[in-house]
Design a protein that fits this description.
The protein has 121 residues and is α+β, with helices and mostly antiparallel strands. The protein is built from 4 helices and 5 strands; from the N terminus they run βααββααββ. It has helices at 17-26, 34-42, 69-77, 80-89; strands spanning 5-13, 45-53, 56-63, 93-94, 104-105. Strands 1, 2, 3, 4 and 5 form a 5-stranded antiparallel beta sheet that branches. β2 (45-53) and β3 form a beta hairpin. The protein is globular and about 50 Å long.
Amino acid sequence: MSTPRQYCLTLNLRDDDALIREYETYHRPGNVWPEVIDSIRASGILDMQIYRSGFQLIMVMTVSDAFSFEDKAFEDSLNPKVTEWERLMEKFQLSGENEENKWQEVENIFQLSKHKSSCAN
């Protein structure tokens, strides 16, 4: 049996309250295009959550062994609706120096399960 992996990624939104509200509206349940949801699930992503703190977005993904960022990017490039969604989202997002990889992976520096406890169980 495989063990799901987690990734955390970050991206900054443009400093514009109206654009941020619009971005959040697009991401409410029922507003993300079905083709985008299908693409996410088909790639091996088991769960995805996006959090916002000010202009910063934080995405947490739980993925299966079948998931790879490279395969997801390739499949997305072949899907016209996903490509259209990504172009639409560009108006909200700051991509920084790397236009091809807007979401940047965050390094995990602490994991509670890898630490011993001094408490007796």
